[in-house]
Amino acid sequence: MGKTGVVILNYITWQQTERCIKSLKETENADELQIYVVDNASPEKGELRRVCREAQVELIENPNNSGYAAGNNVGIAKALADGCDYIVISNNDIEYRAGCITRMRDFLEGHFEYGIVGPKILTPEGTLQRCHYKKKTGYGDIWGTQTILRYVIKKPTDALYGDEQFYLHEQEVFAVSGCCFMLRAACARKIAPFDEHTFLYEEENIIGVRMEKEGWKTGYLPESEVVHNHDQTTRLVKPFALICWACSEVYYCREYLGCGFVKIRLMYWYRTLIFLLHGLRNKAYREQWSEYRKETGKYLRQKEWD
Asked: Considering Cα of 302, then 211, then 115, then 159, what sign does the dihedral take?
């Protein structure tokens, strides 16, 4: 049985990280895990350092907060350097249920064509989160699932994420939720480092594209379960999260869907309208308006990416 590294990405919410680590140690054989907490330049690290010291896990302190992909790239590189055969990518707002990691590892050990496997993801109330991808997200899927249209038309959401029946069965998917998944080291060496041009959002789709390009399959394993305390960090910085969403969407549409000027601008104008509407009720959005224009402007003007 190979060595498993767990990369937990932290920003601000050290209490969530503490609960995540505790759940790992309570539900798995801690001797078989190497846990890495990657802190994305939280302004105050005292409590996080204490948590990691007491739990005897490795803390990696990034000097800058460069987002989801960049933070996880640091942890993946460390896990590979330490000889881990399997690597779990985990948000810090994840709590593990018994045998979750063992089952994912067993799945990969028995299915060599699969490079990634993701668990069933539940809310704290026990409700299923439909957040894995049956197929690649196209431009029309974005409109059908990530705009107000999702409240009017159910079909696009079911087509992209699957209905509840879909989540009853072990199967191949296009991509799994970025909040928690396991990848084998051989796959990590092919698809990582992750694309760091997105700060937050669209990472799953981009990883799915890379998996497909490299010839790896992605699996969903319902017997493996986690609880996702969703948006515990982004809810603290909602205007910033929406800025990241708009930027990542522009980048994904251009670089991975090949969308032209008109399609990208239409989506951008929709996100801008949503931002402005939030600003009517929330001062924080009004205060971040210039930042929204500045950051999204960089992505709209960019023609080529390094």
From this structure: positive
The span from the CA of 17 to the CA of 22, in Å, is 9
Q: Judge contact between 90 and 80, C-beta under 8 A.
A: no
Same domain, 259 and 278: yes
Could you give the count of Cα atoms lying within 13 Å of 278 in the half-sphere of its Cβ? 19
Tell me if 120 sits within 8 A of 97, measured CB to CB: no
Local structure of residue 29 (DSSP, 8 states): -
Q: Mark whether 186 and 119 lie in a shared domain.
A: yes
pLDDT digits (tens, 9 = 90+) for 45-67: 999 999 999 999 999 999 999 89
CA 257 – CA 100 distance, rounded (Å): 34
Place of tokens 């696009």: 156
Parent domain of 203: 4-228
251 token code pair: 């980048």
Can you tell me the distance from the alpha carbon of 13 to that of 100, in angstroms, rounded to the nearest whole number?
A: 23
